[in-house]
Every structure is written in structure tokens, then in C-alpha cells.
Amino acid sequence: MAITVNIRYTGENGNARKFAEEMTKTGIVEMIRAEQGNLRYEYYISMEEPDTVLLIDSWTDQKAIDIHHATPMMKSITELREKYDLHMAVERYVSDETDASGDDRFIRK
């Protein structure tokens, strides 16, 4: 069971993008990706909302997320969010064990 958290960061004057760039440039993104239990950590730019950046953050389980939240780097992330005056909308998804092989005919690889 994987847990995926989608976080939409919104800020004025390109601040969400600047935040994502600083997260990458400072190495925080790579440190998160290297954490045990992290499956995915990627930023995407919205075409419809230029002041919004989507983070797709996926973990093996809640324990991995809890350990991540207890790391010292969370203080740095929180400070960067404040620096860029970002607002967040969060959605959580838990993977299921449903057989989705029927979807394959709609997926071009």
C-alpha cells in the first residue's frame, strides 16, 4: 500500500516556482528522494494556473511519511514555504490492490 500526497503550492509573482527551484538547487529534493520509503518526489508546473506548482510525493507507508516529517530538513522546508509566502492544498491517495490490467488497452507505451 503506497500513499501519494499531492500538494498544490500557490504563491504570487512566481513564488511557487521559485520555491520548487530552491528546493532542488539546495539539494533538499535529492535528500528526500534518498530517504527510505520515498517512491516519488516531483514538481510540476500548472498550465492553467501559472502561480501554482504541484508536488507529487509518494511513500511506501505512513511510517515512512512520519519519519520524513520528523527529520531536521522539515524545518528548512517550512522556512522556505514562509519565505515564499505559499499556500497549500493537500490531497492524499492510498493505492489499492485492484486488478487494473483492463486499463492497459487505453495506455500507449
Explain what you see.
The protein is an alpha+beta fold. It has one domain (3-95): Alpha-Beta Plaits (2-Layer Sandwich). It is 34% helix and 29% strand. It contains 4 helices and 4 strands, in the order βααββααβ. The protein has helices at residues 15-25, 28-34, 62-69, 73-83, and strands at 3-10, 38-45, 52-59, 87-94. The chain has a 4-stranded antiparallel sheet. Strand 2 and strand 3 form a beta hairpin. The chain is globular and about 45 Å long.
Q: Short summary of the structure?
A:
By secondary structure, the chain is an alpha+beta fold. The chain has helices at 15-25, 28-34, 62-69, 73-83; strands at 3-10, 38-45, 52-59, 87-94. A hairpin with a 6-residue loop joins strand 2 and strand 3.
Feature tags:
Alpha-Beta Plaits; 34% helix; alpha+beta; globular; 4 helices; 4 strands; 109 residues
Q: Over the alpha carbons, how many angstroms does the gyration radius reach?
A: 15 Å
- CATH architecture identity: 2-Layer Sandwich
CATH class annotation: Alpha Beta
Tally of DSSP helical segments: 4
Element order: H for helix, E for strand: EHHEEHHE
| Main sheet characteristics | 4 strands, antiparallel
CATH topology: Alpha-Beta Plaits
Summed up, the domain count is 1
* Uncertain parts: none
The largest sheet has its strands arranged as 2-3-1-4
- Total beta-strand segments: 4
Backbone structural class: alpha+beta
Q: What is the average of the pLDDT values?
A: 95
Measured distance between first and last alpha carbons: 25 Å
